[in-house]
Write a structure and sequence with these properties.
Elements: E1 2-13, E2 16-27, E3 30-36, H1 42-49, E4 57-62, E5 65-66, H2 72-78, E6 80-83, H3 95-100, H4 106-110, H5 112-122, H6 124-128, H7 139-152, E7 157-161, H8 169-184, E8 188-193, H9 196-201, E9 205-210, E10 213-219, H10 220-225, H11 227-234
Parallel strand pairs: 3-8, 3-9, 6-7, 7-8
Antiparallel strand pairs: 1-2, 1-4, 4-5, 9-10
Helix pairs in contact: 5-7, 7-8
Bound molecules: adenosine-5'-triphosphate (ATP) and magnesium ion (MG).
Magnesium ion (MG) binds at residues 42-43, 85, 161.
């Protein structure tokens, strides 16, 4: 079943068009990767799905409903959460205070304790550090905290914008393993990465963005084997 469908969107910042007639069709479950160079429009696309930026043309459907003109909190309430580029934590708030901020809807608020416990069982490290300021966590732990905050909203679809950025190789692996675990737990994952090889390796499907357009799409394995992609993005 298609859970998220983006149809022919055009997105502008002022007069500057950064997304051009872009369409994506995301099947429920598993990991879909969006890859592309700096400035290709990946973060813009994520923010657009979340309703933080509105497309000038085109439509976004989630679970069969048109969400194009809905507000971000309504979209989060329906079941889409973003783990933003740069993690977006409040460094002077504690880990737990940051996590709780993810509970936006009435429903999620009423289940905060239960959802916190779920996040803590997934990330025991966060439980140990729940009263510590988020800014004092390591980069990898901060990423876990940001993912935990997204989970508190009880999403069906999780958008992850460059979760491995700036992390040591060992932490990159931990974060990627966590993302695979989330997919195994039934979440639908949309993963934006510059770490093209690793992300396509764990994805059932991938889209390659270039200057706001989809220039290639296919299964993760097919894209990894594609000579053109290997030359232009993997340098091999
Ligand atoms: N608020 C903004 N106002 C004007 N232009 C913007 C704004 N945000 C992004 N852009 C421009 O839009 C284009 C797409 O940016 P975007 O952040 O979506 O790219 P990206 O693929 O996420 O890049 P990166 O890999 O560096 O994160 C870039 O040319 C960028 O300079
Ligand atoms: Mg970006």
């Amino acid at each position: 079943m298609v859970i998220l469908e983006i149809k022919n969107i055009d997105v502008y910042y002022g007069d500057l068009q950064v997304i051009n007639n872009l369409s994506l069709s995301i099947e429920e479950g598993g990991i879909t990767s969006i890859v592309g160079a700096n400035g290709a429009g990946k973060s813009t696309l994520m923010n657009c799905i979340l309703g933080a930026i509105k497309p000038k043309r085109g439509k976004i459907n989630f679970n069969g409903q048109d969400i194009t003109s809905q507000k971000t909190f309504e979209i989060v309430e329906r079941g889409i959460s973003l783990v933003p580029e740069g993690r977006g934590l409040f460094p002077f708030l504690t880990v737990e205070e940051n996590l709780i901020l993810g509970a936006i809807s009435k429903h999620a608020k009423s289940k905060t304790r239960e959802n916190l416990d779920r996040v803590y069982s997934l990330f025991p490290r966060l439980k140990e550090r729940s009263k510590q300021r988020a800014g004092s966590l390591s980069g990898g732990e901060q990423q876990m905290c940001s993912i935990g905050r997204a989970l508190i909203a009880e999403p069906k679809v999780i958008l992850l914008d460059e979760p491995s950025l700036g992390l040591a190789p060992i932490m990159v692996k931990t974060v990627m393993d966590t993302i695979e675990q989330l997919a195994m737990n039934g979440y639908t994952i949309i993963l934006v990465e510059q770490n093209v090889m690793t992300s396509l390796g764990i994805s059932k499907k991938g889209y390659v963005l270039q200057e706001g357009r989809v220039v290639m799409e296919g299964s993760g394995a097919a894209l990894l084997a594609n000579d053109e992609l290997r030359k232009s993005y993997l340098g091999v």
